[in-house]
Write a structure and sequence with these properties.
By secondary structure, this protein is mostly helical. It contains six helices and no strands. The protein is globular, with a radius of gyration of 15 Å.
Length: about 150
């Protein structure tokens, strides 16, 4: 059964906006020079925060899609995107990228291992176009079920 507060149309559209705002921040940060980014703790912290906001919004929307389409019950955050892949909603070619992104999320949140500022900058630069594609796909799928 879906939670009306968590899954309200307003809340889901708010998650789209959060992901868009976070992606905008990541794009802006990706344009900084290495020195400018790496020598500014605020930029590093902002990149981590924007990344976490983006990925959490994606996971929340993906979880809603799974519930709305009755595709199963995810056992973990990684499993959310796996279920969407198994049902052809997310391309299988994205699986490795998504596993890496979820792993980075977990490391940032749970400090399993320290992620260097350079790794954060590389993530932002390498994955921004992928993040756009993923958000577009999730947004389209989400709007088709709300």
């Amino acid at each position: 059964m879906r939670d009306k507060t968590f899954f309200s149309e307003e809340n889901l559209k708010s998650r789209i906006m959060s992901a868009e705002e976070a992606l905008n921040i990541l794009e802006r940060l990706s344009k900084l020079s290495d020195d400018e980014f790496l020598n500014n703790d605020i930029y590093i912290f902002a990149a981590k925060g924007a990344f976490l906001t983006y990925i959490q919004a994606i996971l929340d929307m993906a979880n809603y899609i799974i519930a709305a389409k009755e595709l199963g019950i995810p056992s973990s955050y990684g499993n959310i995107l796996e279920i969407l892949g198994d049902h052809g909603i997310i391309p299988n070619k994205w699986r490795k990228k998504l596993e890496k992104v979820i792993g980075i999320r977990d490391n940032i949140l749970h400090s399993k291992e320290k992620i260097s500022a350079k790794s954060i900058l590389d993530l932002v630069r390498e994955k921004t176009s992928f993040f756009k594609e993923l958000l577009d796909l999730i947004r389209k799928e989400l709007l088709s079920v709300i």
